[in-house]
Design goal:
Helix 14 links the parallel strand 12 and strand 13. Helix 2 packs parallel to helix 3 and helix 15 runs antiparallel to helix 19. The chain is an alpha/beta fold and about 475 residues long. It has two domains: about 190 residues, P-loop containing nucleotide triphosphate hydrolases (Rossmann fold, 3-Layer(aba) Sandwich), CATH 3.40.50.300; about 180 residues, P-loop containing nucleotide triphosphate hydrolases (Rossmann fold, 3-Layer(aba) Sandwich), CATH 3.40.50.300. The N and C termini lie far apart (about 75 Å).
Length: about 475
């Protein structure tokens, strides 16, 4: 049966999007594949259809709980019952039952950290997998070295001689990141499909401010005058709460989203945004990956991101329906200093290395550094990984190089901020590609009219029977006095 016929049989689609068929054909031939497809181009189909053709379990290594849950829900909408997410949402009893029955599932979603657990590895080693997928594979390079080192171990635990093909998927990656993906996954001469990172329907603009507080005033004025849905990114959890509260007071439906919130709260907020109950999300970069909302019209960066890859990923959440959307970057003098601080804040330093060595000399577990408040949990994960890979002096060099790279990444973002040249051209060139054509309303440098892209906010007059909830409460309170 031809691939198009199988596509219609299992998913109801009559044709492939660019790149999907080429990637699937290579997987069916048993080849490793690295595919860079922009957000909204249907990356997940590249492993879902082979899963039905092979009819053996597909292992999908995924970075975030929300992303896993979104993919699970998506497959269940297509009547797939043999799908599971093996993650921290499961209690010990549920996890044990899922691991024991793992061979019965068609699609198995798992985090790199869960993959490293001994009982999970033992079970997977008894199974015949049809495909290993690393979703959002850029995380190997962007997160593996300094945030989640278990990403660097994936190739070690799945890279045996008898393994099935590996499919690495991402929306964006520089040449360096592509190299890291291939090296750390131990890919064997992978077929590469690299689509242009440019999204012509996302129009780019930026605004400069003397004072950071002026940015907040601008956001409030802008969001009360223009339509969403939209995402506002900031690098401070406190600021997400403050901005969302001000937006609520202005009569906008908004919520804050950050890693400090309870998992269920984050899920609830995300679902409200997806179904349209919330118009605006004010978030740290914890929000967005795997959020399949097609009609995001605006992405606003209240503070500059720490690197170009994050910026590209975040603005890529706009306009997934192919319609016009806008990405707005706000900058005030000194923003880059905070971005640099965020970039290197949790990196271990030479003092941490000495403390680690002292614990080893005393035959005490170095993990006590966390309990004694000498290092963050994230910092320890990074330090522990490298201390078990290299000599002490080599670790010092690695950590210093990582710090230098983080600082350089902020400098790359500042080039976009300060340039008088085409923002789109600079973005595309950063990822090693050339811009073929500038769309209308391209960017600040080329000329842009927000009024032609974003609709004005519709002011709704409430009748007597449609008074706002604030007015209803006020009337009830006054009536009870």
């Amino acid at each position: 049966m031809q691939l198009e016929a199988l596509l219609e049989k299992y998913f109801g689609y009559t044709s492939f999007r660019p790149g999907q068929k080429e990637v699937i054909e290579q997987i069916l031939m048993g080849n490793d594949v690295l595919a860079l497809l922009p957000t909204g181009m249907g990356k997940s189909l590249c492993y879902q259809l082979p899963g039905y053709i092979f009819n053996k379990p597909v292992l999908i290594i995924s970075p975030l709980l929300s992303l896993m849950q979104d993919q699970v829900d998506q497959l269940k909408q297509f009547k797939e019952k043999r799908v599971v997410a093996l993650n921290s949402f499961l209690n010990a009893h549920q996890k044990r039952n899922v691991v024991q029955a793992l061979h019965h599932y068609r699609f198995i979603f798992i985090s790199p950290e869960m993959l490293m657990q001994q009982q999970v590895l033992q079970k997977l080693n008894t199974m015949e997998l049809s495909l290993i997928v690393v979703d959002e594979a850029h995380c190997i390079s962007q997160w593996g070295f300094d945030f989640r080192p278990d990403y660097l171990r994936i190739g070690e635990v799945v890279g045996n001689d008898n393994r099935p093909p590996i499919l690495a998927l991402s929306a964006t990656a520089t040449d360096k990141v592509v190299g890291d993906i291939k090296d750390y996954l131990k890919m064997k001469e992978p077929f590469e499909y690299i689509h242009s990172v440019d999204r012509p329907n996302i129009h780019l603009t930026k605004f400069m401010f003397y004072d950071r507080e002026d940015k907040i005033d601008w956001i409030l004025r802008h969001t009360t005058e223009t339509e969403g849905p939209g995402i506002i990114y900031t690098q401070s959890r406190t600021k997400t709460e403050m901005i969302s509260e001000k937006m609520l007071q202005a009569g906008l439906s908004a919520a804050a989203y950050h890693g400090g919130k309870d998992t269920l709260d984050r899920q609830f907020i995300q679902q409200q945004f997806i179904n349209g109950s919330l118009e605006w999300i004010v978030a740290t970069n914890a929000f967005g990956m795997g959020v399949h909302k097609q009609n995001v019209r605006q992405v606003i960066h209240e503070s500059i991101p720490s690197n170009m890859a994050n910026y590209m990923q975040e603005i890529g959440r706009a306009g997934r329906d192919g319609k016009d959307a806008v990405a707005i970057l706000l900058y005030a003098e000194g923003d880059e200093d905070f971005a640099r601080f965020i970039g290197i804040d949790e990196l271990p330093n030479e003092v941490h290395i000495e403390i680690y060595d002292n614990y080893k000399v005393r035959n005490e577990p170095p993990s006590n550094m966390i309990n004694n408040g000498e290092i963050s949990e994230t910092g320890f994960r990074v330090l522990n990984y490298w201390m078990n890979q290299l000599s002490t002096n080599e670790v010092k060099n690695v950590l210093q190089n990582m710090k230098n790279e983080k600082l350089q990444e902020v400098n790359e973002v500042m080039r976009i901020v300060k340039t008088s040249q085409c923002m789109r051209k600079m973005l595309v060139q950063y990822f090693g590609q050339n811009l073929e054509k500038n769309p209308d309303n391209c960017c600040s440098a080329c000329g842009i009219s927000l009024q032609e892209i974003i609709n004005p906010r519709q002011q709704v007059e409430l009748g007597h029977d449609e008074m706002s909830w604030q007015k209803r409460i006020e009337k009830l309170l006054i009536g009870n006095l």
